[in-house]
Specification:
single chain; mainly beta; seven-stranded mixed β-sheet; four-stranded antiparallel β-sheet; 11 strands; about 0% helix
Length: about 120
């Protein structure tokens, strides 16, 4: 079915920027809302950002609002997360996920990409 592959994570210093990408295949990308989540060791998965099917509406967690930007390019079947002013507390594995317009929850998840922010 839908396969999602995240990339772009790495080790950066506080204040740096990073852009994550999530490439989708195996489905009709334009019918899915997309979301970014993160999970730090010992903590629950945390919602970060979402974007509607056409990209017309976005939503952000308060902890990243004003610093992170979610976007999508339906022609490339890719969703992005631009992360600016990174903080050590942003350190986590970041996952992208898709939600069909027929679903009320995220159905498909990527493998995750590690983001580590040093102080």
């Amino acid at each position: 079915q839908v396969q999602l592959v995240e990339s772009g994570g790495g080790l950066v210093q506080a204040g740096d920027s990073l852009r994550l990408s999530c490439a989708a295949s195996g489905g009709t990308f334009r019918i899915y809302s997309m979301g970014w989540f993160r999970q730090a060791p010992g903590k629950e998965r945390e919602f970060i950002a979402s974007i509607t099917r056409s990209g017309g509406s976005t939503n952000y967690a308060g902890s990243v609002k004003g610093r992170f930007t979610i976007s999508r390019d339906n022609a490339k079947n890719t969703v992005y997360l631009q992360m600016n002013s990174l903080k050590p507390e942003d350190t986590a594995v970041y996952y992208c996920a898709s939600k069909s317009y027929l679903s009320n929850e995220y159905d498909y998840w990527g493998q995750g990409t590690q983001v580590t922010v040093s102080s």
